[in-house]
Amino acid sequence: MFIISNAITLLLVMDPFGNIPAFLALLSNMDPGRRRRVILRELIIALAILIIFLLFGGYILKGMHISEPALSIAGGLILFLIALKMIFPETVRGQGIAGDEEPLIVPLAVPLIAGPSTIVMLTLLATRHPDRITETFLALLIAWLSTVLILLLSDLLRTLMGTRILKAIERLMGMILTTVAVQMLLSGIAEYLSSLGMI
């Protein structure tokens, strides 16, 4: 249950359905074969970055003297803002990338996939459950593989489902993520008040 619940949460945070318009707009000038290769490469880079934060995020927090309640509250706020953008999406703007150019790391790998919310979520899971790193990694892998599948099929999904259905799915994911964000925020506040002996 730990793996499945966290895989779902990470998938919601990565928001592959919401990222379909951005990926297609940024790579609009590429042929489908080349576009798929670029998407796969960027997703592999994003996975590598996320694994680094999963393994070493706790040490980074200790070095910066950031407490777990502070991370939980910050994570809740970030997730809440991300969820609001999913529920009330802005129109993707941009002319795409020139045919002879390829994005590298920014903006596809970071921040669209390995964004602040995903990094905070993984770091929080690693610090709260240091004995379950393997399970957290499996949850990340499930969410990542799902994201890979959705984004590699982005052209087909947009054709079959249409933009309106994709937006509806994104908004539904945003509503679910809102509850996760509020729970994380409340947990962080409770932990902070408990550390002060107030509850």
Automatic annotation (TrEMBL):
InterPro entries: Multi_antbiot-R_MarC (IPR002771). Belongs to the UPF0056 (MarC) family. One of its GO terms (cellular component) is plasma membrane. The keyword Cell membrane applies. It holds the Pfam family MarC. Its main location: membrane. It is found in: Cell membrane. It comes from Marispirochaeta aestuarii. Keywords: Cell membrane, Membrane, Transmembrane, Transmembrane helix. This is UPF0056 membrane protein. It comes from the Bacteria. The lineage of its organism: Bacteria, Pseudomonadati, Spirochaetota, Spirochaetia, Spirochaetales. It is a multi-pass membrane protein. The chain crosses the membrane at residues 6-27, 39-61, 73-92, 104-125, 137-160, 172-193.
